[in-house]
Amino acid sequence: MADYIYTMEIRLTPDQLKGVNLVQEVARAAGITLYLTGGAIRDIISGFTIRDLDFTVQGNPLKLQKDFERAGAQLAGHDEDFRTLFLVLPGNVRAEIGMAHTELYEKVGKAPVITPASIQEDLRRRDFTVNAMALSLNEGSRGLLLDPFNGVADIEAKLLRILHNYSFVEDPSRLIRATRFAARFHWPMEERTQQRYDAAKENKYIEHISRSAVGHEITQLAHEDDPLNVIRALEKEDWLKVLHPHWSAAKVDTNGLGLLMKTRQQMVDLGYTVDPSPAVMHFLTARLSEKDISDLRRQIPRKDLIESWRDIEDHAKELAKRLTGKEAATPSRTWNLLSGARPEMILFLAVTARNQSVAQKIKNFLTKWRDVQKRIPLPEMTELLITPALPEYPKIARDVFMLLLDGRLRSRTETLKFLKPFAPPPPPPPPPPRRGRGLKAAAALAPVAPGKKSEVAKGKGKGAVAVAPVAAVVGPVPTAPAKAKPKASPKPEPKAAKAKNKPAKRAPKPGGKHPAKPKLKPKLKPKKAAHKKAKARKR
Ligand code: ATP
Asked: Is 485 helix (H, G, I), strand (E, B) or coil?
């Protein structure tokens, strides 16, 4: 039997997995039964990108709003009728918590009667078999997959299949959804589904689509990996004008959108968690009038998307302005400024910046400046015992990076000269071995003076000291506003400079004109310390 919890854990991003745990914790504390459902399960099993997390609870999730907020989630909207909470979980993870319910369609074109129900009943009101599965996240049954319509088999067959013959009549938004999924996954509709689809289209059932379904489908476009492909498919089927009568593929800024998706991928590869949806909406509607855009926005249920789409140009302008000012006068300052900026803004500005210098700075930030990390002499730092074990290591490493960025450490020799004063004293030698075999062991453990290669550092033996990874040196790719200010300057320690093996008198200050006084202090002056210890031993 497939282990779906294991599959879920390896397929979700770390942030999504944390999101699942957060929701699970809140539901458990509230004593409410919870399932991961819909598209999330489909994508976990099929291997496609998991775009968002759909949860279903047996109970009313609106009552849990405060609990979710306390646990770190942000409310992005809610739907009273369907009792659904739209959340943004830490790490920009989109989630929906819906109430398990049945939908009774009494008349074509009329909203269904919603009744709270069990998860089994809820799965019966879903659109396609591949979306009608639920994974239990409850104690006792955790990992149990409910798949009453054999969705797993349809995923394997790559087919879209409705659950019953009246599916498109009951909810015509499923026609749009069928087109969207077929375009995204390149999965055709199963034969009978296709017949029902054609009949529903011919009978113009789409005229009965609800306003809220239109809003939901507009929102979904913003999260497509290839939105242009989907827009074209919707246009071909005549569904795009259902979402807005003036919308067409011709209203899309295709160049901008193409560049946006490319840059987004580049940022994802660099480790950013970036939500491109506001920028996608900007380009998808680039040639629509202001009024049409406002109409579209009004229908979107997630207020976070409405706001971020509305404000994206203004925020990008602000960032562009800062990038032309003093704050970005040097590469290190620009790095700090962009590291603190929202990835969404960097992405949007990378595509839309008209000012050459702004565009170049963003380009350098995403490409050239990353290579500067490779010039940080990690093996030598390890030999000097400047490793992540040192509390001041992050600052030292960051300062070296900043100085390299600004071209103020131009050679390896200069870099090592800067680093040497930060080398901690070597550890004290072990007590002398008593006999025979002990000798060998002691030799292996003997400390090595900074600058000399130990057997361990040379990579010999089992416990070879790994060279600190580059990410550990300049920190992870920033995804949250960093507090680093360009003022913080790396300076070698002054007392060490007075010691016999005098290092560089003055170290350059990143982002600044003048070399500045060193701030970081190695705790002990290596030679004096060794001398003291030797004396003590003699005594
Ligand atoms: P996506 O990857 O586009 O987010 P999704 O399947 O998760 O796909 P959502 O619109 O987020 O799509 O809906 C979540 C789930 O809710 C679906 O998988 C489906 O089970 C159910 N659902 C959504 N819309 C409908 C609908 N119109 N009719 C029936 N079930 C629906």
From this structure: coil
